[in-house]
Amino acid sequence: MAKVHITNVVVLDNTSSFFNPFRFELTFDAQELQEDLEWKVIYVGSAESEEHDQVLDTIYVGPVLEGRHMFVFQADPPDVSKIPEQDAVGVTIVLLTCSYRGQEFVRVGFYVNNDYEEQEMRENPPPKPLFDKLVRNILASNPRVTRFQINWDDSHTNGNGVPENNGHSDEIMIDGPSTLQQQDSMQDTLPIDYGIIALNENSK
Hints:
This protein is mostly beta strands. The protein has a single domain, classed as Immunoglobulin-like (Sandwich).
């Protein structure tokens, strides 16, 4: 049984300039843990390959006592030199992950749209992306949450110290069935296959 449950994620300062920091307000319920939680913000730089993913920041939260916790996670924008030019403008994904003892147990993914603020530049984009002219909009109302079973402090393990049901994941939506229906519809129209794969257990 999971000892940490994310109850809410609020995207702050949305919509924003491309070079502004990412800011998320996270709320989670937890049982008392022996070690800290490791949180990461990951920017998916390209739909074609994981090699363009960037870990924007990593923080450790602890000690974790039983009860409800809330904090703001701020991360710097991605390094534009690591983003392929053809993937700079358009739809991508930002991920929030949390791990315990080196084991990722939850992942929250948001679609992100980067586009020019000026209508003329949207209709006639420059040959090379102008990142200082881009505006970032996170689809905050449709997060996809994937949970993975891990070995907590008192979990039953097999002979190798791995949870008996290791590898199983449950994919949920924070906002309930109506949001899930909207998300499924969006997946049919967004041209980003890797981003969708990154939000399920096959990305492990």
